[in-house]
Design a protein that fits this description.
This protein has 7 helices and 11 strands. Strand 1 and strand 2 form a beta hairpin. It is 30% helix and 20% strand.
Length: 282
Amino acid sequence: MAAEFEVIRLVGEERRVGNLLSQVSKHWQGEKESFCFVSPHDDDVVLGAGLAIQLAIAEGVPVHVLVVTDGAMGYCSEAEKETIIEIREQETYDSIIALGVPKENIHFLCFPDCQLGLYTGRRVGNGEPSAIAGYTGLQNAFTYHLRKIKPTQVFVPTMNDLHPDHKVTNEQLQISLFHASGDIWPELGAPIDAVPAIHELAIYCDFPEPPTLKISCDAETFEKKLTAIAEFKSQKQISKLIENVRNAGPQEYIRTINFRFYQPETYHHLFQGTSTNPTIGR
């Protein structure tokens, strides 16, 4: 049985309703579509976008997942303290592949869990697991993967989330959109042709502003998301999160960010007619 979805996108006071993202999205590029879900921790993207991933795959859109941290701080017993990275890596594969994402499209960036504040920007890598082309840092990794994957749409936890790793991931991803579209750091690949649309997911906290997209699904598709979350067996508190998601019902909410580079002309109208010198500002 094919999965069934309903998608509602808010455009001002207007509601656009369809069964597919392609029917309501203002960013849709047809066969060029490629989605990238950026997950600070391995389970974040399944919690916040397990339905969105399934919908994208149902529409034939290639889906990539970037897992930013290594999960080292997620141990719940002394016995797993030294092996939790390997355990969570396997759980990640089991979970995200169950949603339909190919194994080769799951990318581990290997930054230390709960330490992303130390990895803003870019610096020489010194053999660290997170190093790419001899450099480490979130901007280095994001720029590389954006250029390699060339996504048309990117999804990341909201800056409003309390977890510092989520805030840093969001911030560093957005500046990396600027880098990826320019000529800087050529060893990381050719610049992307266009900046992708960027969307926020809510994991722990509410959005800073109301979401703009709602995805609903049938019971079987929803159960598939819950099962995928449950693959993170090493995370003993995961049962509480599953119950929270189950109680919320078969829907997800996403907020599109109005991302664009600075354009001074945006503010011209605010100051029209205020100059006393007619030669100034020409």
